Amino acid sequence: MAHDYFVANPNDTSVAIVATTTRTHTGRSGAPQKIALTLANLPKRRDNVGATWPRTPSKIDPQNPPWPAFRGYHEYSFAHATMGHRLPTILGKAIDDVIRTLNERSSEEEIIDLVECIERMEGLMTDLSGNANLRYIVDDGEADVALWNKEIAKYFQGKTFMNAPWLVAEAYKYRRLRECFAVSKYWKEYDVFFRQKCDTFSRSQDAVFELSTRFAEPFQKSPGVTEETKLERERLMFTELAQICLWGNSTDLSLLIDMTEEQIKKLQATGGEQLARTEKNILDNNLPQLWETVKGFKDRGGGRIDFVLDNAGFELYCDFVYADFLIQSGLAREIRFHGKKYPWFVSDVTRKDWNWLLNAMVYGHLFHTASDQELRSLKKLGLRWKEYEKGGIWVYEQHPFWCTGFTYWDLHSEAPDLFLHLSKSDLVIFKGDLNHRKLTYDCQAPASTPFHVAIGPMASAAGAPRVCSLRTIKSDVVVGLGDKGDEIAEKLDKEESGWKISGKYAVVSFSEGRPGEKVRFA
Ligand code: F6P
Ligand code: MG
Q1: Taking CB atoms and a 6 Å cutoff, what residues make up the pocket around ligand 1?
Q2: CB 143 within 8 A of CB 400
Q3: Residues of the chain scoring pLDDT < 50
Q4: How far apart are CA 290 and CA 510, in angstroms?
Q5: What pTM, to 2 d.p., does this model score?
Q6: E-strand spans in 425-505?
Q7: What is the pLDDT of residues 178-222, one digit of tens each?
Q8: Which atom of ligand 1 is nearest to the CA of 436?
């Protein structure tokens, strides 16, 4: 099937963004209030450009995805609002956070060092708002410097924040933010998003206790019921908790910075009725297939399941609830969690967020209006999960590849060690929107494209693991909607504009991969 789309002009550098910044109390520039976009030669979506998609595999590279990339200057895409408005706003708030820290310090040496971090952040703001070219990353000691600079040198010389593919440009902004601190003396590990991440968990009280009071006691195996009934109960629990884990992704900070507690509560409703209502919003629903696969792990003493994590706080808590069930039920014997090495896309999990959550559950005083019973249940869960970690049943890992601009089509070639590692897993669960964008090359693949086609080598390379993507839809790329997928997407476009960024819809996409085959590298 041939699909014709607008082909972005990769040489178009005519985009300029003018940011009007506010002054904070310190006189430094904070979050820009108004972003005026001057977009000369704004491309229009055109049909019939005569090209055939997808590109043949030998012509695919980060600048030329299998289907046309989304780029910041595509007004019809979420890329435009993100690059032009959301990222400067996020960066402005990050500067405000550092200023708050600065005002709390007393050591002159540390203060001077932090002032320099702020100056670098302001430099980044100028580059982002002025649509500068993507420059190399300085050697700041991170393990991904060579990977980043190789990608920039090979594919993005002379490319800007607005005309490079959105995924790369957005990731690059977070990498540059890291650089602002990594080159410092005292602030290498500073996380400008940490306060916000802790805050969302504290503001999720109802949902947190709804889950802890239900799941603190270990699961009971009811005696005297038939094997069939037991299995059916397990299936129901598996499906419910998979959905809790899925919808835990809908409240991420980068999009919902200004949400009220009421709105958060609504999104986090975890009860059975709410789940039944939202199940119809799972547009590619492979929960039954997922269960059929995972239930087979039990016969061999449980499988190894990997979670490629997304967000900290409440989403991580939901991931833990699901992972706890997988261990207790014997479906999994070992779970490996993959987080980020440094602050990433505002809410993503780092080692510090992981530790914070477990310690906040056991020792924290976050929930002032909670009952003793609620607090006890939270502590009990936290203690059990810490034991898993101590016993090596849960393992936290942070490979540098997860914080690069490469998509997972290149995981096999750019991080062969990680590919080999994942190939030994029985199931790799990718959480969230960004992971889904990276799996699918974040391009304009038709919604009818089968998921296993959209993820390329992550499904087709020898040794590719089974992959499941649990994603609430928060950006443009949508695949796996079946033969009628293009019509479904078109109908939603007409009837519910914004359906691709609202987090109301989701997918549970699944690929069988080629597990058990010997991994081969070119
Ligand atoms: O800035 C857009 C984005 O990168 C989208 O992928 C998504 O809207 C959000 O940020 C991150 O979502 P998630 O935390 O689910 O990956
Ligand atoms: Mg995230």
Answers
A1: 82, 86, 170, 249, 252, 254-255, 310-311, 345, 347, 432-434, 437, 474-475
A2: yes
A3: 1-43, 47-50, 253-259, 264
A4: 7
A5: 0.89
A6: 427-431, 467-472
A7: 999 999 999 999 999 999 999 989 999 999 999 999 999 998 877
A8: 16
